[in-house]
C-alpha cells in the first residue's frame, strides 16, 4: 500500500530528528496495518466473492464435470444447506429419526448445490450489479442482478444471509422472486402426503443416481 509523504511546512526543520522520523514511520505503518487488517466481510462482499470465484472457474476452459467439481466448494462456502434443508422440510424433519435426518440433509445438500450451480454459477463472463443491503433483525438480504454475457438475459437474485460464527451464509436464495427453499418445501410437502419418509429418501437418492445405502449405514 503506497502512502504519500506529507509535504513540509515552511517552518518545519529541513532535517527532522531521528525520533520524529521514527515516530512518523511508525504511525504510517500502524495506519496501513489498520486498513489492511479490516477486510470487508459484509454479506454483500461474501456473495460477491463467491460469484467472482465461480466466474473464474466457469471461464477456466475446464471440462463441464471439472467445473462442477471446482464449483461445489464455492457453493458450500456460501450456502448453509443444513439450515435450508430443515427449513424446507418443516415439521416433518422433527418426526424423522436421527439417521433419517442426517441422510436427508446430506442428500438435500447435493440436490440443492446441483440445482444452484446449474442456475447461477455456470454463467460465462457474467456481470453483477448489487443493490443496497436490507436488514431485518438477524437477517440481511443481498440483492443482485446477474447478466450472463453480452446480450443475454438478466436475473434478479436475492440472498438471505445469516451470521454463523465468524462468517455469513445464505439460508435462502430467491431467483426472480421465487424462493428456492419454498420451492423445495412445496415439493416435499406434496410428496409426503402420499409417500413415507423412507420413500422420500429413496426418491432423492434416485434423482442423484445413488444406490440404496447398505443396511446398518
Relevant terms:
217 residues; alpha+beta; 8 helices; globular; 6-stranded antiparallel β-sheet; Nuclear Transport Factor 2, Chain: A; disordered N terminus
Question: Care to describe what's here?
Answer:
This protein has eight helices and six strands. The protein is α+β, with helices and mostly antiparallel strands and 217 residues long. It has one domain: Nuclear Transport Factor 2, Chain: A, CATH 3.10.450.710. A hairpin with a 2-residue loop joins strand 2 (134-136) and strand 3. The radius of gyration is 25 Å and the shape is globular. The termini are far apart.
What order do the helices and strands come in, and which of them pair?
Blueprint: H1 18-36, H2 43-58, H3 64-78, H4 81-89, H5 91-95, H6 98-121, E1 126-130, E2 134-136, E3 139-148, E4 154-164, E5 167-175, E6 178-179, H7 180-194, H8 197-207
Antiparallel strand pairs: 1-3, 2-3, 3-4, 4-5, 5-6
Helix pairs in contact: 2-3, 3-6, 4-6, 4-7, 6-8
Question: What's a quick, concise take on this entry?
Answer:
This protein has eight helices and six strands; from the N terminus they run H-H-H-H-H-H-E-E-E-E-E-E-H-H.
Amino acid at each position: 500500500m503506497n502512502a504519500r509523504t506529507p509535504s513540509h511546512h515552511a517552518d518545519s526543520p529541513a532535517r527532522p530528528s531521528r525520533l520524529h522520523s521514527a515516530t512518523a514511520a511508525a504511525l504510517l505503518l500502524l495506519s496501513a496495518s489498520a486498513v489492511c487488517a479490516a477486510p470487508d466481510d459484509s454479506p454483500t462482499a461474501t456473495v460477491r466473492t463467491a460469484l467472482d470465484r465461480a466466474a473464474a472457474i466457469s471461464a477456466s476452459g475446464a471440462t463441464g464435470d471439472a467445473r462442477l467439481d471446482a464449483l461445489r466448494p464455492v457453493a458450500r462456502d456460501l450456502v448453509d444447506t443444513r439450515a435450508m434443508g430443515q427449513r424446507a422440510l418443516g415439521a416433518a424433519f422433527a418426526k424423522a429419526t436421527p439417521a433419517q435426518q442426517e441422510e436427508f440433509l446430506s442428500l438435500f445438500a447435493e440436490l440443492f448445490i446441483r440445482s444452484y450451480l446449474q442456475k447461477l454459477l455456470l454463467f460465462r463472463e457474467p456481470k453483477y450489479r448489487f443493490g443496497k443491503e436490507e436488514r431485518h433483525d438477524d437477517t440481511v438480504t443481498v440483492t443482485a442482478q446477474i447478466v450472463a454475457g453480452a446480450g443475454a438475459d438478466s436475473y434478479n437474485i436475492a440472498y438471505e444471509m445469516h451470521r454463523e460464527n465468524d462468517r455469513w451464509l445464505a439460508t435462502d436464495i430467491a431467483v426472480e422472486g421465487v424462493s428456492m427453499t419454498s420451492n423445495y418445501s412445496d415439493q416435499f410437502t406434496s410428496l409426503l402426503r402420499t409417500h413415507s419418509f423412507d420413500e422420500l429418501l429413496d426418491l432423492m437418492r434416485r434423482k442423484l443416481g445413488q444406490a440404496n445405502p447398505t443396511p446398518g449405514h
